[in-house]
Amino acid sequence: MSVTATIPVRTASRAYDVLVGHGLIDRVGEICRATAGGSVAAIVSDSNVAPLYAGQVEASLGRAGYRSASVIFEAGERGKRLSTLERLLEGIADAELSRDDVVVALGGGVAGDMGGLAAALYLRGIQVVQVPTSLLAMVDSSVGGKTAVDLACGKNLVGCYFQPSAVVADVDCLGTLSHELLTDSCGEVIKHGVLADERLFSHMASRPLNAGGYGRAELARIVARNVEIKRDVVSADETERGLRQTLNLGHTIGHAIEAASGFALGHGASVAAGLCCIARAAAAKGWCDEGVSRTIEDAVSAFGLPVDTDIDHATLLRYATHDKKRRGGTLNVIVPLRIGRVEVRTIAVAELGELIALGCGTHRPGA
Fold first, then answer.
1. 70, 128, 220, 280: which has the fewest Cβ within 10 Å?
2. Secondary structure (DSSP) of 96-112
3. How far apart are CA 32 and CA 141, in angstroms?
4. pTM over the 0.70 mark
5. pLDDT score of 322
6. What residue spans in the chain does CATH classification 1.20.1090.10 cover?
């Protein structure tokens, strides 16, 4: 058991550490004891992850003096709804957690969102420790305190900001991910490179994570670098009023693609496609050089992720205009200027249709 990196996150509402390493699943109880306290823990996990890790986490919690209970929901984005949240809250209440106790959110991004939101709402807020088991959750969704569920109109429309007491990222968990899920997670890694780190982007483009050959120490360093990128943004802007909006790079169109597909396409793959689409639109508008969009497309292709979508423009526009980033008659879109630098552009909602037309369904292989 080893911690490769401890990344401090300091926000206006809470300070906590993200621990990245291997063998950390067996230390969850110890970490909960040191950061959250309490005497009862509720493990919130899904039907895929719980059989793999819930037993280890329960044993770890027991060694640390906790009485624990597991509250399991059906895996998948389709379960990320208010009805599921109600069942989780009933399960937490049945376990008799008090205001001093802790929820352990164990799993990928959906489990992190559901566990975090349940902790935020139960008794008006109890402690939560995030234990991400997917690459996407480790590098993105477990850090920064965003929690949400979906509505029929769109993704993540009901939620709140609720920072965890700690994040425990055990890269050994990545060994149980299918190649498909690992590949999907890589969309957020590519996004972080485009957003803030040209060196990370170039390394990933030349040696994709899903191609294999990475040892756990190197994986831990890559996860830690991604966490640092997100930490730097959320520490400066906890509630997405300014800088944090840049983390939505690729998400306005990406969320529309994801929702319009009925969540058949994963979040990371949808973000990768959305990133390519906005890059092509930005190049067509003269906001960035055409070479920027081609470089992004080449990197996304190297991972086997989609660079475009065949969903019709009217459908994409309908979902995109229901996005939570909309403010009245305007919408902020994040535009890549070059690899490692982006800008926030405020556009009229009516202009979004033009960007979709310029960037979606327009990729020409070999052009």
1. 70
2. T--TT-EEEEEESHHHH
3. 19
4. yes
5. 78
6. 179-219+239-359
